[in-house]
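Hi C.,

You asked whether I'd gotten around to modeling the 192-residue construct. I have! Everything is below, sequence then structure, no commentary in between.
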Amino acid sequence: MNASSAAWAALGLGLVLAGLLTLARLRPSRGGGLTSPQWMLLLGSAGMAVGLALDAWFGGLEVLAALCTGPASFAGMLSLHLQQLPLAHAGMVAGGLAVVRLMPRLRRGCRRQLCAQVGQNLVCSAWMVVGMAAGSLLFLQLAGWAQAVRDPAVVMAGMFAGMVWGMVASVSLVQALVRLRYAGLPDARRRP
């Protein structure tokens, strides 16, 4: 890995860690251990990594190279992501959905309705996909402004950072909607 790639990886890692800290503040653990969003992020990342490896194996490095020279618009980048990295995105969604079945086993108090969990995880996955494309686009723009080489390390750092911040956006939105729903209700009727 050259110095430029290492710098982009470090920037991406820093943004991932900042996103994880933000996520921990948004959804603190009640009884120790990981929260549902943290499990979703962990398993979604693992699924994305496996899918990305398969995408790269089937398409070689051309897949990442296509993203490096990809369009400058968000819609174009999102479309290119979905076309060029279908297994990475499918793996991320599958990993996220695995949490629905695992959470009752991992945390005894987790007994929410299955349909609500699946819906919420799919919405969160959509935000994560949007974040991946936005992160890639942002990092490629930054690389252009810094007159740096637009290589796969830039795209990967942007993808992972964007995925985490997409989840932060989703959790923030869900919490805002919950607050609106329960605003004005007596304390006894609010969710714990």
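If it helps when you're writing up: Residues 169 and 177 are 12 Å apart (CA to CA).

Thanks,
B.
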